[in-house]
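Work Package 4 report. The design task specified in the project plan requires that, given a folded chain encoded as structure tokens, an amino acid be chosen for each position. We show below one input record used in the internal validation round.
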């Protein structure tokens, strides 16, 4: 079926579906490193999680996922970007999280928002020529729907923030109102990351704080875990 919405309302509704926390990609099973900080007592309440989340958005999401989405929109070859993301995601669990959620998103997208670009990416993944990373899967679908780059970036980043905050609400635990306060503050970080992503270049790709990566590497050897990453 055609997959080219012609009005902002059309692609905004599609974005809401793609970014809904109920989309079954498995995001609820991943902390992407904050559980290590939780285990060490560095993240323990609303304020400390908010600090971690702000750094994660500004550093890891801003210099990795956001740039991958932007470069795809600008026409960089998909296999090359996929390989760069695989190399840049040093922690094993983070690579696996990206490809598990990405592969699931490709499957969902093929059913509800099919496009030639999405079919091509699925074929690359199926033949072993690509890993199938989440930000690239999202970018392929969003671009095929006609979503402008700034809106695609904001939607993707805020969806990631929402999933992580929901996971923190039950893991720390935090109250539901605390989660909403965190999301409101994180919206400013997302907006700043979208602007910053437009000014970075390829030398900035993967420039992530070593502390974040080390915590993500330590997670797989943590004695007790709620999350897969």
């Amino acid at each position: 079926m055609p997959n080219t919405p012609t009005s902002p309302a059309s692609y905004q509704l599609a974005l809401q579906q793609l970014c809904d926390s109920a989309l079954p990609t498995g995001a609820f099973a991943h902390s992407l490193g904050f559980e290590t900080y939780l285990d060490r007592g560095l993240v323990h309440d609303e304020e400390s999680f908010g600090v971690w989340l702000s750094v994660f958005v500004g550093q890891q999401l801003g210099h990795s996922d956001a740039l991958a989405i932007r470069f795809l929109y600008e026409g960089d070859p998909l296999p090359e970007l996929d390989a760069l993301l695989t190399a840049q995601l040093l922690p094993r669990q983070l690579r696996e999280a990206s490809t598990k959620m990405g592969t699931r998103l490709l499957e969902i997208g093929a059913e509800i928002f099919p496009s030639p670009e999405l079919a091509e990416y699925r074929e690359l993944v199926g033949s072993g020529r690509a890993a199938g990373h989440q930000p690239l899967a999202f970018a392929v679908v969003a671009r095929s729907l006609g979503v402008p780059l700034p809106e695609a970036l904001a939607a993707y980043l805020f969806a990631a923030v929402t999933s992580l905050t929901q996971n923190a609400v039950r893991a720390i635990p935090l109250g539901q109102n605390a989660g909403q306060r965190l999301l409101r503050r994180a919206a400013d970080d997302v907006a700043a990351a979208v602007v910053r992503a437009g000014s970075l270049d390829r030398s900035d790709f993967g420039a992530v704080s070593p502390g974040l990566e080390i915590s993500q590497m330590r997670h797989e050897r943590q004695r007790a875990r709620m999350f897969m990453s």
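The longest helix spans residues 46-73. Validation will be extended to a larger panel in the next phase.
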